[in-house]
Specification:
By secondary structure, the protein is an alpha/beta fold. It contains 8 helices and 12 strands. Helices cover 38% and strands 20% of the residues. The protein has an 8-stranded mixed sheet with strand order 5-4-3-2-1-10-11-12, sandwiched between helices. A 4-stranded antiparallel sheet has the order 6-7-9-8, covered by helices on one side.
Length: 260
């Protein structure tokens, strides 16, 4: 694959490019990360995709990259192209009604302040709470959400620091499968992510590309490699940029980006 004209870099946001923050609108990228991603985009030989559980509209101001990469929100359900074209699939009436019921439950339990409302889902966050308080909050949410999920088939997603009810088409694994259908088999691909939500992406990628877990501490994963943020991620992106500029997109180039 050495000498391939294009490569693909899939990057999770929270926990990978940016530290977690209890005030989610303040979770800006680690120092140096945005500049490296921007330079990789400017190099024009890598298709950079930031794929996140957040809404697309939340990510644009946080990234503040010019030119910006593609942004896939809601676990790949939403797509915002580099040219500004947006693919925001419409939700069916059953899904909309189910999400409305899920929101009403949170209001009834006075939990709206813990919720993140998205175009295709609702996430409740408990990062910063004690283990006991988090468990109690989770139980209160699930008491109302489980019947909705059982009746409608919406997905229930557990992630580090919260839980989410979402449209069944919102899944990073499905997004990766769709991406692989868009590119040639020879195109090198790397996928970086930290959360359990990224495991479906790692699994979908398989041996077709390089999957990388980004976490301060190791956990069981289907990813092939492990990097600690932010230093290892910065080194990886810097190595990737050097490989791009040298025209080496193959396995050797990817390995160099990791090993440096």
């Amino acid at each position: 694959m050495t000498g391939a004209r294009e490569s693909v870099l899939l990057l999770d946001y929270d926990g990978t490019l940016a530290p977690f923050h209890t005030q989610r609108d303040q979770a800006v990228p680690y120092p140096g990360i945005a500049l490296l991603v921007q330079e990789i985009v400017r190099d024009a030989r890598t298709r950079v995709i930031v794929i996140s559980g957040r809404d697309v509209t939340d990510l644009v101001p946080l990234l503040d990259i010019h030119p910006r990469p593609e942004i896939w929100g809601m676990h790949g359900f939403q797509r915002l192209g580099v040219d500004g074209t947006a693919d925001m699939p419409k939700l069916d009436e059953q899904t909309l009604n189910a999400l409305s019921d899920a929101e009403l439950w949170l209001s009834y339990k006075h939990l709206r302040h813990r919720a993140e409302f998205k175009s295709g889902g609702i996430a409740v966050h408990w990062r910063g709470l004690s283990a006991l308080d988090a468990a109690e909050l989770r139980a209160r949410v699930l008491l109302g959400w489980r019947p909705i999920i059982e009746q409608t088939g919406l997905n229930l997603l557990e992630f580090d620091g919260g839980i989410e009810i979402r449209a069944h088409r919102a899944d990073k694994g499905a997004a990766v499968h769709a991406l692989l259908r868009e590119i040639t088999f020879e195109t090198p691909v790397a996928c970086l992510g930290d959360d359990t939500t990224d495991e479906s992406a790692f699994h979908a990628l398989g041996d077709r590309g390089l999957s990388i877990l980004v976490r301060p501490e190791w956990r069981a994963t289907s990813a092939q490699l492990w990097l600690k943020p932010p230093e290892d991620v910065i080194d990886f992106l810097a190595g990737w940029l050097r490989s791009c500029r040298e025209g080496n997109f193959g396995e050797g180039g990817v390995a160099q980006a990791v090993n440096e």
